[in-house]
Specification:
The chain is built from 17 helices and no strands. The radius of gyration is 21 Å and the shape is globular.
């Protein structure tokens, strides 16, 4: 993949913008807390990175196909750089910072969808696309772990506004890399303007593509349940904050290791064969929580659940094959939107259930329910294709 010059530019831009976003998140929470003294406002600043994601992805998805991908990507980066620069301005009030945070989150799914769709143009629609998408996903997981640490170190030496200024510089560098490092390509679909709901119906109109989309959205919603409830669970077992920190890293570390193994050690045929069984198996390690295990077994269960996410490489291949070329940008944008939205819903529902049930029961229940849901969706994927009219929709 790195032999492809355009992919090198996309990869470097991805890394810069990711680190910028993560550093901005921790810096903004500190900045707002120092300005207001309110834990609620500080938490709201972090939450606003997720809430506008669903709205932006739904409303902006058609733009991913209507305009050339490079133009969309550069415009999103420049908008985010401008928002970050405005946050640095000393006179910007807290309310303005929150609005700017919403604006950055609003365009994020469009950027992610357009970039994912453009990977098929850069790397082709074969094996390189699957591995390239997997690599970007692994970088995202790793950057989130490293970014919070980097943000903490930066804030020990510079003020929050200074760290946010580095975020603005990162977005500008990303825009420059994408502008000079990728080729200009025409828009995928030069069609009449349509409503966002029409685009949503086009992507979800066919049975097989709808089942594949839900298969991308719903399993992660169950996978985040232990992350949402690890704090109360570890507190109930008497473990300390150091143990909690180690356990919080287990699932993303397992996910990165699983994708690295599947991408480097397995052939495309083998990955296709293990997609279904691994997808069903991925929530099953959470059943171990039913016996209230200690930290060592919890660590093993979370690592195993993360490793099983190697099924996503085969799922990416199936999804790309099912999406018509003229819908690729919209489909990838909505895929990113739904993934973020359902993870948020999963966390919220887990927290609500834990108000009435013990945390270990909720986590184990999520494992059982997740496996059942995945099995049902796979049955829909295996049905004969009846999508002949999909592109017309």
């Amino acid at each position: 993949m790195f032999r492809v010059r355009e992919f090198r530019a996309v990869f470097a831009a991805h890394l810069l913008s990711l680190l910028g976003v993560v550093v901005a998140e921790i810096s903004l929470t500190v900045l707002v807390y120092r300005a207001t003294g309110s834990p609620l406002m500080s938490a709201l600043t972090f939450a606003l990175g997720f809430l506008p994601h669903a709205l932006g992805g739904t409303l902006l998805a058609p733009l991913a196909d209507r305009y050339p991908a490079r133009r969309v990507l550069v415009a999103c980066d420049l908008l985010c750089a401008a928002c970050a620069a405005a946050m640095v301005w000393p006179g910007t009030p807290v309310a303005g910072i929150l609005v700017l945070r919403c604006a950055m989150a609003f365009v994020a799914p469009l950027f992610q969808g357009a970039r994912s769709a453009s990977l098929a143009d850069i790397l082709g629609t074969g094996e390189a696309f699957v591995l390239g998408r997997s690599l970007l996903r692994m970088v995202a997981q790793s950057a989130q772990l490293a970014g919070f640490g980097l943000g903490g170190v930066l804030l020990a030496f510079i003020a929050p506004r200074g760290a946010i200024a580095l975020t603005a510089a990162g977005f500008l560098a990303s825009a420059l890399l994408l502008r000079v490092g990728t080729r200009a390509r025409p828009a995928r679909a030069v069609a009449a303007r349509e409503s966002p709901l029409a685009g949503l119906r086009a992507v979800l109109g066919g049975r097989r593509l709808r089942a594949l989309t839900l298969l991308c959205w719903l399993p992660p919603a169950f996978a985040v349940v232990p992350e949402a409830l690890l704090a109360p669970y570890t507190a109930g077992t008497g473990a300390g904050t150091v143990t909690l920190g180690v356990l919080m890293c287990a699932l993303p570390v397992g996910t990165v290791a699983g994708e690295l193994w599947a991408g480097s050690a397995l052939t495309a045929r083998t990955r296709a064969r293990i997609t279904a069984p691994l997808a069903v198996a991925s929530p099953l390690p959470l059943l171990l929580f039913a016996v209230r295990p200690g930290p060592v077994l919890v660590l093993a269960a979370l690592l195993a659940a993360g490793l099983a996410h190697a099924y996503t490489l085969g799922l990416d291949r199936m999804y790309l094959d099912a999406v018509p070329d003229e819908l690729r940008g919209r489909a990838m944008t909505l895929l990113s939107t739904g993934l973020m939205t359902f993870q948020g819903i999963g966390m919220a529902l887990a927290g609500a259930a834990a108000e009435f049930l013990p945390a270990h029961t909720v986590i184990a229940g999520a494992g059982a329910l997740g496996a059942a849901v995945v099995a049902l969706l796979l049955a829909g994927v295996r049905r004969p294709r009846d999508e002949t009219g999909l592109a017309a929709k």
